[in-house]
C-alpha cells in the first residue's frame, strides 16, 4: 500500500499542485515582485526597489491610522463576537424548545454577502440616526459602532455553530462527575466545559481575528471611510491607494504585502497561544 | 461509551450543518440511554451520507483540478500564438484564427474590443456592435464596467491577452495613468474630423492621444413651471429667469423662494446636496470646477502644481446656498445620493438641481415624474466672479476615446475603422446621436444631427447665444483621492465638524500633495 502510494504520488498530487500553483503561488510571487515596481498593469512594471515601502508609510497615506483603527476594531470584534456566540451556544445546547429554529435564524446572516449587508445596515442605522438629525458618516464613532454591530450580526451565527459542535462533544460523564463532586454550574463551565472546547475556541478566535482584520466589503459599503477616512480600515486603504491615486499602484501593492505579513504574524501568534491551552480529550 | 463522542471538531461542524440543512438531530448531550442509541443510529446514517458527499466532492475537485490544468495549458498556447493570430478569444474563435496581419495597416482579421464606461448605454452599444458586425463582418465586442469601477476593470482587462482595443480616459490625468497604452491618433480621421482640435488630450510631444466623442454641459437645472409660479407671486424679487444673471440675484431669489416654499408646493428650492461617499462628484468635481476655472484664468494657465484656492469664499457662498435652501437639513446630507436628488426634482419637490444634460434620462425615468419636458431648463452656476451676465454653462467633456497602442496593428486599424464608421456613416451617426445621445464634436455631423432631449437643446441654446462657456478644468484635478478628500471635507463641513477654513486648507494641501505624487 505504502509503496503504491509512493509510486503514484506525483500522478495524484500533480493536478492539485498545478491548480494551487496557478491560483496561489504564482500570483503571490508576482505580487511580491510587483511591490518593488512601479506599474500601471502587471505587464509593464519597472523595478524601483524599496521606494514603494517608504512611500507606504509616508505621511498623507493614512496607513498607520488605518492600522490603528483596524486593530481597535479587531480587538472589540474578537471579544464581542466570541462572547456572544459562546453564550448563545450555551443557551442553545440546553434543549430549549425550537432549538433548531433558533440555530438556523442565528446562522442565516452569515449567508448574506458583505456589500448587501453593508448597505442594509447603513439604511437601518441612518433611519435611527435621522431622529437625532444626523447620519452614520457624521462621526467616526458611529461608523465604528456600526461596523462592530454589523460584524457581530454576521459572524456570531457561524461561531455559534462551531461552539455548539464543541459543547456537544464535551463528554457527559465528565459533567456528571463534576456535578457529583458538587461543582456549581459556573464551576462546571469554567473548569470542565471551556477546557474541553478549547479547540473550538482556537478556531473561532482565528476566524474572527483574521476576518475582522481583513474586513473590506462591509467597510466599503457601510461608510467607505467617511468621514475624512477616519473609518477606513487597512484593506480599504490599500484599495484606495491602488485605484484612486495616479501612479500609486506599486505603493498599494507594497501595503498589501505589509498587510499580509501582519495578518500572518498575528494569526500564527494567536494560534500558538491558544493551541497551548488545548486539552487532549 | 466515550468512544462515540470522539469526533474531531470539523466532523462536528459538518454535523451541525446537517442539523440545519437536513434537520438530522443528534442530541448528543442527552442523558438517557434510549436517546443515546437513537442518536447513534442517526449518526451512522449521517456517516454514510457524509462518505457519499465526501466522495462526490473529491470527484468534483479532481475533475476541476484537471480542467484547471488543461485550461492553463491552452491559455499558455494562445499566448504563444497571439502575436501572429492577432485574436483568439477563449470560446468564439470564428474565422479570425488564421490571419497573419501584423505589420501592415490593414484591418483584415482585426477585431474591436471596446470597454464601455457608461452602464446606462450598455444595451445601445451591444446593438451597435451587432449592427457593425452584420455590416462589415468585423467582430466587435463591447464590455461595460459596472458604475464606478472603470479603472479597476480596465487595469485587469488591459493586462490580459484579449485586451480592449478601444477604451476611454477622463482627460490629462487619465492620460498620465494610461500613457503607455495610448496610441498616437494625430494622423487619424478621427482627429482630422474633430471640429475643435483643442478638445483632444495631447501628450508632452503635442500629439493627440485622446479624442472626445461627446460634449456635455452642466449647470443648475430648474423647473420652469415652479419658477413661473414664483414670478407670479406678490413681492417676487424678479419677474423672469432672464433677470437672474449673477450670484446676488440668484441668492436673493432662492432665499425668497425658500421662505415661500410652502406656497409654491415644494420642500425646498434645491434638491438635496448628495454627499454620501461616492455620490459627491457634483460638488467636489463639478462645482469645484468654477473656482479653479477662474483661478486658472487669472493666472493664464491651464494647470497648476499648487493652487491658492483664490475663490474659496465664492465656492462657500454657492455651496451654502445649496445646503441651506434645500429639501433636506445639512446634517442629513451624508445619506443622500444623486438619484434621490434627481428624483426629488422629477417629483416636483424642489425647483432646482445642479447636474448636467445626462441627467435628463434620470429625470424622465422617475416613476410619477411630474416635470413637463418643456419646463426643464438650464441656468449657469453663478458664483459671483467675472463677467456673470455673459457666463454660460460649464461645457466640456471627460470622455475621450483612446486606442490601445499595445494591440496588434490589425486590431488598431479595425478599431479606427469602427470609430470612423460611428462618426461618418449614416447608420453610425444615427446611433451616436439618437441611441447614445452624444453631442458629437465632429465636423461630420450636420446641424440637424443633434440629440433632441430638452437639456441637450438648452446646451446648444447656450452655446449659440454667444455667452462664454466655462471650460471643464476638473480634468486637471490631481486624482480621485483628492476629489474624495474634498468631498469628505464638504461632508464634515455640513455636519459642523469642520470650519470652512479647514475645508479650504484641505483642498490646497491635498492638491499640492497629489500633484507632487504624480510628478514623481
CATH architecture of the domain at 76-232 in chain A: Orthogonal Bundle
Structural class of chain B: alpha/beta
Strand content of chain B: 5-15%
User: Which H/E pattern describes the elements of chain B?
Assistant: HHEHEHEHHEEEHHHEHHHEHEEEHHHEHH
Quick check: average pLDDT of chain B?
79
Topology of this protein?
The complex is a heterodimer of chains A (281) and B (520).
Chain A: H1 2-7, H2 9-34, E1 37-38, E2 46-47, H3 51-56, H4 63-92, H5 99-107, H6 114-130, H7 140-168, H8 172-180, H9 185-196, H10 198-213, H11 217-222, H12 234-244, H13 249-275
Antiparallel strand pairs in A: 1-2
Chain B: H1 9-21, H2 33-85, E1 112-116, H3 122-136, E2 140-144, H4 150-158, E3 166-169, H5 172-178, H6 189-192, E4 201-202, E5 208-212, E6 216-223, H7 224-231, H8 247-259, H9 261-264, E7 268-270, H10 281-299, H11 312-324, H12 338-346, E8 350-356, H13 359-364, E9 376-379, E10 391-396, E11 400-403, H14 409-424, H15 426-435, H16 454-464, E12 468-471, H17 480-494, H18 500-519
Parallel strand pairs in B: 1-2, 7-8, 10-12
Antiparallel strand pairs in B: 3-11, 4-5, 5-11, 6-8, 6-9, 6-10
Helix pairs in contact in B: 10-11, 10-17, 14-15, 17-18
Question: Could you please describe the fold and organization of this structure?
Answer:
The complex is a heterodimer of chains A (281) and B (520). Chain A contains 13 helices and two strands; from the N terminus they run ααββααααααααααα. Chain A has 281 residues and is mainly α. Chain A has a domain at 76-232: MetI-like (MetI-like fold). Chain A has a two-stranded antiparallel sheet. In chain A, β1 and β2 form a beta hairpin. The longest helix of chain A is centred in the N-terminal third of the chain and has 30 residues, at 63-92. Chain A is globular and about 70 Å long. The mean pLDDT of chain A is 86. Chain B has 520 residues and is of the alpha/beta class. Chain B folds into three domains: 2-63, no CATH class; 107-214 and 398-445, Periplasmic binding protein-like II (D-Maltodextrin-Binding Protein, domain 2, 3-Layer(aba) Sandwich); 217-395 and 460-519, Periplasmic binding protein-like II (D-Maltodextrin-Binding Protein, domain 2). In chain B, α10 (281-299) packs antiparallel against α11 (312-324), α10 (281-299) packs across α17 (480-494) and α17 runs antiparallel to α18 (500-519). In chain B, the strands form three sheets. In chain B, strands 6, 7, 8, 9, 10 and 12 form a six-stranded mixed sheet that branches. Chain B has a four-stranded antiparallel sheet with strand order 3-11-5-4. Chain B is built from 18 helices and twelve strands. In chain B, α3 links the parallel β1 (112-116) and β2. In chain B, 47% of the residues lie in helices and 11% in strands. Chain B has helices at 9-21, 33-85, 122-136, 150-158, 172-178, 189-192, 224-231, 247-259, 261-264, 281-299, 312-324, 338-346, 359-364, 409-424, 426-435, 454-464, 480-494, 500-519; strands at 112-116, 140-144, 166-169, 201-202, 208-212, 216-223, 268-270, 350-356, 376-379, 391-396, 400-403, 468-471. The interface between A and B is large, with 61 and 68 residues.
Amino acid at each position: 500500500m505504502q509503496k503504491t502510494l509512493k509510486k503514484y504520488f506525483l500522478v495524484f498530487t500533480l493536478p492539485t499542485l498545478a491548480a494551487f500553483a496557478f491560483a496561489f503561488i504564482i500570483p503571490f510571487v508576482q505580487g511580491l515582485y510587483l511591490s518593488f515596481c512601479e506599474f500601471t498593469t502587471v505587464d509593464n512594471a519597472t523595478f524601483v526597489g524599496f521606494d514603494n515601502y517608504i512611500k507606504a508609510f509616508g505621511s498623507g497615506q493614512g496607513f498607520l491610522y488605518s492600522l490603528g483603527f483596524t486593530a481597535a476594531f479587531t480587538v472589540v470584534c474578537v471579544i464581542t463576537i466570541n462572547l456572544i456566540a459562546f453564550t448563545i451556544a450555551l443557551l442553545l445546547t440546553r434543549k430549549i424548545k425550537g432549538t433548531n429554529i433558533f440555530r438556523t435564524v442565528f446562522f442565516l446572516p452569515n449567508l448574506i454577502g458583505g456589500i448587501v449587508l453593508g448597505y442594509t445596515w447603513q439604511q437601518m442605522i441612518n433611519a435611527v440616526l435621522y431622529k437625532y438629525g444626523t447620519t452614520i458618516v457624521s462621526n467616526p464613532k458611529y461608523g465604528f459602532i456600526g461596523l462592530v454591530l454589523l460584524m457581530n450580526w454576521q459572524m456570531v451565527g457561524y461561531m455559534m455553530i462551531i461552539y455548539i459542535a464543541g459543547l456537544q462533544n464535551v463528554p457527559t460523564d465528565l459533567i456528571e462527575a463534576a456535578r457529583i463532586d458538587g461543582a456549581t454550574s459556573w464551576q462546571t463551565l469554567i473548569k470542565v466545559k471551556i477546557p474541553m472546547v478549547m479547540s473550538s475556541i482556537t478556531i473561532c478566535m482565528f476566524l474572527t481575528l483574521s476576518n475582522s482584520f481583513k474586513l473590506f466589503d462591509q467597510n466599503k459599503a457601510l461608510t467607505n471611510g467617511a468621514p475624512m477616512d477616519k473609518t477606513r480600515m487597512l484593506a480599504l486603504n490599500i484599495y484606495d491607494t491602488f485605484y484612486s491615486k495616479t501612479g500609486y499602484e506599486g505603493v498599494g501593492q507594497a501595503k498589501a504585502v505589509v498587510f499580509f505579513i501582519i495578518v500572518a504574524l498575528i494569526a500564527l501568534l494567536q494560534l500558538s497561544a491558544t493551541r497551548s491551552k488545548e486539552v487532549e480529550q | 461509551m466515550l468512544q462515540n463522542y470522539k469526533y474531531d471538531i470539523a466532523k462536528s461542524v459538518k454535523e451541525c450543518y446537517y442539523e440545519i440543512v437536513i434537520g438530522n438531530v443528534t442530541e448528543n448531550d442527552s442523558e438517557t440511554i434510549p436517546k443515546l442509541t437513537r442518536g447513534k443510529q442517526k449518526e451512522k446514517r449521517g456517516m454514510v451520507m457524509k462518505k457519499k458527499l465526501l466522495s462526490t466532492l473529491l470527484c468534483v475537485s479532481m475533475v476541476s483540478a484537471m480542467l484547471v490544468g488543461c485550461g492553463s495549458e491552452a491559455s499558455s498556447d494562445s499566448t504563444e500564438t497571439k502575436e501572429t493570430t492577432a485574436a483568439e478569444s477563449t470560446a468564439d474563435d470564428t474565422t479570425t484564427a488564421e490571419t497573419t496581419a501584423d505589420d501592415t495597416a490593414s484591418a483584415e482579421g482585426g477585431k474591436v474590443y471596446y470597454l464601455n464606461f457608461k452602464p446606462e448605454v450598455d444595451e445601445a452599444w451591444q446593438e451597435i456592435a451587432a449592427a457593425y458586425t452584420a455590416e462589415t463582418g468585423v467582430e466587435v465586442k463591447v464590455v461595460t464596467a459596472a458604475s464606478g469601477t472603470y479603472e479597476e476593470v480596465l487595469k485587469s482587462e488591459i493586462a490580459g491577452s484579449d485586451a480592449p482595443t478601444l477604451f476611454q480616459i477622463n482627460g490629462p490625468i487619465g492620460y498620465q495613468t494610461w500613457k503607455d497604452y495610448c496610441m498616437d491618433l494625430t494622423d487619424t480621421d478621427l482627429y482630422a474630423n474633430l471640429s475643435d482640435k483643442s478638445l483632444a488630450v495631447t501628450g508632452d510631444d503635442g500629439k493627440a492621444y485622446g479624442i472626445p466623442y461627446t460634449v456635455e454641459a452642466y449647470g443648475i437645472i430648474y423647473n420652469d413651471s415652479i419658477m413661473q409660479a414664483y414670478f407670479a407671486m406678490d413681492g417676487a424679487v424678479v419677474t423672469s429667469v432672464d433677470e437672474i444673471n449673477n450670484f446676488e440675484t440668484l441668492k436673493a431669489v432662492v432665499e425668497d423662494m425658500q421662505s415661500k416654499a410652502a406656497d409654491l408646493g415644494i420642500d425646498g428650492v434645491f434638491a438635496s446636496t448628495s454627499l454620501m461617499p461616492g455620490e459627491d462628484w457634483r460638488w467636489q468635481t463639478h462645482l469645484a470646477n468654477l473656482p479653479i476655472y477662474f483661478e486658472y484664468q487669472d493666472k493664464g494657465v491651464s494647470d497648476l502644481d499648487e493652487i491658492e484656492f483664490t475663490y474659496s469664499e465664492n465656492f462657500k457662498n454657492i455651496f451654502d446656498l445649496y445646503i441651506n435652501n434645500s429639501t433636506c437639513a445639512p446634517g442629513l446630507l451624508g445619506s443622500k445620493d444623486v438619484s434621490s436628488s434627481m428624483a426629488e426634482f422629477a417629483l416636483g419637490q424642489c425647483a432646482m438641481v445642479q447636474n448636467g444634460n445626462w441627467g435628463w434620462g434620470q429625470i424622465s425615468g422617475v416613476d410619477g415624474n411630474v416635470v413637463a419636458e418643456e419646463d426643464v431648463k438650464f441656468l449657469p452656476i453663478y458664483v459671483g466672479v467675472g463677467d456673470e451676465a455673459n457666463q454660460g454653462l460649464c461645457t466640456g467633456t471627460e470622455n475621450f476615446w483612446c486606442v490601445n497602442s499595445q494591440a496588434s496593428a490589425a486590431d488598431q486599424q479595425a478599431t479606427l475603422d469602427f470609430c470612423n464608421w460611428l462618426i461618418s456613416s449614416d447608420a453610425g451617426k444615427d446611433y451616436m446621436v439618437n441611441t447614445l445621445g452624444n453631442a458629437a464634436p465632429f465636423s461630420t455631423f450636420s446641424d440637424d444631427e443633434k440629440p433632441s432631449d430638452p437639456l441637450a437643446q438648452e446646451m446648444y441654446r447656450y452655446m449659440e447665444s454667444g455667452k462664454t462657456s466655462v471650460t471643464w478644468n476638473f480634468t486637471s484635478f490631481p486624482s480621485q483621492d483628492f476629489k474624495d478628500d474634498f468631498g469628505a471635507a464638504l461632508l464634515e463641513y455640513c455636519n459642523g465638524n469642520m470650519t470652512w477654513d479647514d475645508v479650504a486648507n484641505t483642498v490646497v494641501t491635498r492638491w499640492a500633495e497629489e500633484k507632487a505624487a504624480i510628478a514623481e
